[in-house]
Amino acid sequence: MPTTPSRRSTCPPSSTTTQPLSYCPKAPGKHSRGPGETWLLDLGEGGGRLRTTLHPSPLPLHISVTVGGKQYLLGLYDTAGQEDYDRLRPLSYPMTDVFLICFSVVNPASFQNVKEEWVPELKEYAPNVPFLLIGTQIDLRDDPKTLARLNDMKEKPICVEQGQKLAKEIGACCYVECSALTQKGLKTVFDEAIIAILTPKKHTVKKRIGSRCINCCLIT
């Protein structure tokens, strides 16, 4: 796996009743950079400050999330969406409990990559693992400069209805939108990731989470 600078990991004290949960994310669309930047909630620095990075890491970033009155430990794994990592990326899939397939609502190409690149890859390497479809950068949907750029390319931002339709087509557990800049929707993303694990679809085997950390993989 490619090496990256170390990250500070924040785990709840052992005295708490935290139930471990892991999240392995993947970032921007394949062959792309910038618009689909991987976002991670860095609770280890600045008390909830969000940071972005384009560096994949085999080490998890832990955050605590409360759902239904219970506290879970979410292990976020940042992998690479670039073509250079095509052979290495699937190595992180076997221990993943849930995937977040991300695209930028102001990058139609990344939206297209979901169906053409990421879903086929997950069906090949992790066919029975639940996944969510996440629309990112919603703060730019009404940004004048972004709209002008898209207009020059005769394109428009991806709307909520398009995201919901694609989520249904590919069999995602749900569609959620968020903004790394304003943090709008981020809590919902993590909540839904946990719910997807605790309430699996029919004909799938429910995993025994116990006291371990749940692994979640982000793909964009």
TrEMBL record:
Top-rank taxon: Eukaryota
Record's subcellular location: Cell membrane
MF terms (GO), sorted A to Z: GTP binding; GTPase activity
Primary localisation category: membrane
Pfam families, per database record: Ras
Family of the protein in this entry: Belongs to the small GTPase superfamily. Rho family.
Compositionally biased intervals (Low complexity): 1-18
InterPro entries: P-loop_NTPase, Small_GTP-bd, Small_GTPase, Small_GTPase_Rho
Protein name: Rho-related GTP-binding protein RhoQ isoform X2
GO BP: actin cytoskeleton organization; small GTPase-mediated signal transduction
Xref: PANTHER family: RHO FAMILY GTPASE
Gene Ontology CC: one annotated term: plasma membrane
Membrane topology: Lipid-anchor
Gene3D superfamilies: P-loop containing nucleotide triphosphate hydrolases
Encoding gene, per UniProt annotation: RHOQ
Region (Disordered): 1-36
Entry keywords, A to Z: Cell membrane, GTP-binding, Lipoprotein, Membrane, Methylation, Nucleotide-binding, Prenylation
Entries under NCBIfam families matching the protein: small_GTP
